[in-house]
Amino acid sequence: MTWVAAVARLRANREPGALVTVATVRGHAPRKAGAKLVVGRTETWGSIGGGNIEAVAIDRARELIGTPDPEAELMEFALNDKVTSRHGVQCCGGAVSVLVEPLPVVEAVAIFGVGHVGLELARILARHNLDLHLIDTRPEMLSDERLGVLSDAVAEVNVHHTLLLPEEVLSELPPGTHVLIMTHDHAEDAALCDAALRTDGLGSVGLIGSSAKWARFRQRLANEGGHDAATIDRIKTPIGLTEITGKEPAVIAVSVAADLLRTFEQDRQWAVSNAVPSVVPQTPLANSV
What we know:
This protein is α/β, with parallel strands linked by helices. It is about 30% helix and about 20% strand. The longest helix is centred in the last third of the chain and has 25 residues, at about 250-275. It is elongated and about 75 Å long.
């Protein structure tokens, strides 16, 4: 499997990984600059030369995989028999620098209702590296022609065609998916709110609409759905930045997208602040074969 295919496989399976690249080579070394290795939690694809250089790089890549919000690192390896190493001696005689780039699992967002606001929001979110799920019960809203504006998306766009029960898509979404409910039908919105509160593992849940709409929904979720107040409070409404008050679809979409990006940042900060401290082994000038 090529390194490109390996990265795509990790992305499709929503598994974290790391891309390891030989950045520079001075003197003799097992591989030339540009050689690549993809590291997953349990598997690897490709090679940067084997021996200590590869083993140390794999160790460090997996340490990074296990940390929140990891950053790329440059590792230096001296290839001689005088350098102490963890995985044996490599004495090619040269020196190598290796770039380790984390490949974290990206955020996932599901937009239920791809009308005027939903499509504008999809256009904004599609410019970001995330998994974007679009769901609508109206086939014309998800036509290839209408979604052509997303053809150059950075995001991985997943279109879900469902004619009757969009709430069934909730169980198909990746863990941690942030859900935005903005369909054309208040009855559909209400059913989605109820189903979202019953679906484990979702991220944030947002509902578009007025305070009057939410008052009716809240009463229905309590009386008919049997949800307690704390559970109902998981749904955020209105969505978007409250200081942006424009009603145009593009303005609402910008507001909602900005609020969602702020949620991503808060989640990352929370993960970092609540991470269990670990001692990262220091690798001086590591060896290779």
